[in-house]
Amino acid sequence: MERVRQIVRADEVHREGYIGTGITVAAMDTGIASHIDFDHRIIGFLDCISGRKKTYDDNGHGTHISGIIGGSGFAGRGKYRGIAPGCNLLMIKVLDQRGNGNAKLFVKALDWVLANRVRYRIRILNISVGMLPSAREQEQYELLQKVEEVWNAGIIVVAAAGNNGPRESSITVPGLSKAVITVGSSDDGTAAYGAELHRGYSGRGPTPACVVKPEVVAPGTSIVSCDTKRDRYTIKSGTSMATPVVSGALALLLQKEPGLSPAQAKLRLYESSVQTDGDRQGWGRLDLVNLLHKGRK
Predict the structure, then answer these.
(1) Does residue 44 lie within any of the structural domains?
(2) Catalytic residues
(3) How far is the first Cα of the chain from the last one, in angstroms, to the nearest whole number?
(4) Which of 4, 77, 166, 214 lies at a 20 to 30 A Cα distance from 172?
């Protein structure tokens, strides 16, 4: 995470006091473990798989992405601090131990988010999972409709582009939605440590509706973040890891400007993203200083 923070310039805005305080970021994933880096900021947990009440993660994926969003870095003396280390975290477990789920569970989870958005003050929903466009058309339609309902209710939805690049039209659902912010990996041209990912793995558009995707890219390869063991870290790669970088960034933006709508926040990403020679996807790479200071280079 130290490398990621340098790339997106997170430390600069952390020093200004922007750490996501008061902003709730929800995530739909495999669960969340009680890692020391989350201290007392896990404010809600829904288990759509087994109905358990106490937080757990029998896979590790959800804990890892949660650490990228908002881990304090305490166990690593600040080296592996997340993007928004002061935000509140809410986890909806929709994937089992093997990382499998189904569209019905996703829709159920999204209904719960809608019903509880005021209670938990949910501002951002991170979805680092997805289904391929080859999934049943009706399932895709229902999931995309519900995701857009969440967006229209005032929650910024941030979804992964998927790891099926570099071929065109390889974005996964719900990243296909024209409304949501879809995130690709800016460093997918490098070897992915500990994962069966090839060079150029980040999903790319256009979508069937001819929408350019992903909107923005962020580091996603060999990311160190929280493990299911209370004081340990682990390494994972994929657009699943790039997505929470953007979710954390948006938590900082909302701390600074809490009145922004999802559409306004999306426009700010568009205006502040930085194009480099290696970033040929979407608008470019996330830059936090630019994002929080209206395009200041």
Answers:
(1) yes
(2) 29, 61, 240
(3) 23
(4) 4
